[in-house]
Give the backbone structure.
Amino acid sequence: MLQFQHWELPPDPVLDWRDYKQNNMNAIYSFSTKPYLANQGRVHGYIPNQCFIQSWLLSVNLSRRLFDNLILYTDKVGYEILIKGLKLPFDSVSLALEDLSDKLIPEMWASGKILAYQLQKDPFIHIDYDVFIYEKFDEEFLKSDVIAQSREEFEEFPLYIVMLDYLKKGGYSSEILEAADNNIKHANNCGIFGGNDIDFIQKYCREANSIAEYVSLHKSAFYKLKPKIKSMFPIIYEQYGLAACLSFYGKEITYLFNKPAEEINLPYTHLMGAKSNPKIISKLDARLNKEFPIAYSIGEIFQGPKAARMFY
């Protein structure tokens, strides 16, 4: 399974960032602390604090160069961690994720992202905290109705098959998933996601929420699944749910790239499953220190016991 996109970090930038920003689209991030704290301060239960801290610092500071309007959607604890603690340079912060339903079990970690999508009234791009964007995107790409990072085939990512089988056997059904059954054998990686068709995105969010709420309602069966399936389960409603909705409503999606990551050369990195890889963490550490030394020094403060007090 491909763990991350673009192995080597791009060379040092030589651009004047003041003339380089993309002004017509809100760039948003989201962080719901409920799943984070439930896993003792580790997203998905296996990501080291060091990688979490450095990823946020590098990702947001890079995006700060490229987008005029940078917005964070989080909750009160997330505000303490990311804004008061790491001092991330957002233009505005919404605590709307305080309203995330208490009915959702902590394992539904993508639901904070879905709520952030759902709150948008204007064209937007959501950026995951482990995505690093080094150059601005093509303007035509950002004008598309729906955008995402890339396509994921079931053959490459067989966990989707297992998760879908669980949903079917568990009794979940919807007109959208039934229409997709046996026809849609791929998902859409949402390392970045957004677009201009806000009406469609609202429909997609309703379907995603429906799946997350059903699984949470039947949590006793969910907790019998293997740990890896449980930890990755939200991709079924976030990424496969998106593919199913696109098919059902007859919408097109535009990908940042269509080829496998090893065949492309983009100034874009998505760590994905590499966040616990010591070599990757070392590269991340070096890049943050080189590009944003002040942010790096802030990250250094929040290591060890300080991080424990901050996160727990």
